[in-house]
Design goal:
With 122 residues, the protein is mostly beta strands. It has one domain: PH-domain like. The protein is 10% helix and 43% strand. It is built from one helix and eight strands, in the order ββββββββα. The protein has one helix at residues 110-121; strands at residues 12-14, 32-37, 42-46, 49-56, 62-69, 73-79, 88-94, 98-105. Strands 5-4-3-2-1-8-7-6 form an eight-stranded mixed β-sheet, covered by helices on one side. The relative contact order is 0.21.
């Protein structure tokens, strides 16, 4: 599993093609909401969970997939981008692992992601 306390995620940028990396992990009734990528790593939001992908090794053929189900979220916080500060953040508190933080740059659908998370919490 990715060590979110020590893992220094670069800022994630929207990248629809990154979702291809997790397509074999998806359930029959699971759909992609959005996907984001750094240089190698990335995050895919589905209607059921968040899948964090840590690409490892020189060739990048080894990957660590961490599945973070929305049902295990106890609280979350979003910070949307502004006029001059185009970055946004998502902090999620999971019952078993604690805080997970993702930083985004550029266009992101934080409000849609927030609605999906809220639909499982409320």
């Amino acid at each position: 599993m990715i060590d979110f306390n020590n893992k220094g995620f670069f800022k994630l940028k929207q990248n629809p093609d990154f979702a291809e990396k997790v397509k074999d992990l998806l359930l029959d009734d699971e759909r992609i909401v959005d996907s984001y990528k750094t240089m190698r790593d990335g995050v895919v939001f589905t209607n059921k969970r968040i899948i964090a992908v840590n690409v490892q090794g020189i060739t990048g053929s080894k990957k660590d997939f961490t599945s973070l189900p929305y049902k295990n979220i106890v609280a979350y916080s979003i910070e949307t981008s502004g006029t001059f500060d185009l970055d946004s953040e998502l902090e999620i508190y999971f019952s078993a692992i604690g805080k997970v933080k993702f930083e985004f740059t550029g266009k992101s659908s934080m409000l849609e992601i927030s609605k999906i998370i809220s639909s499982y919490l409320l």
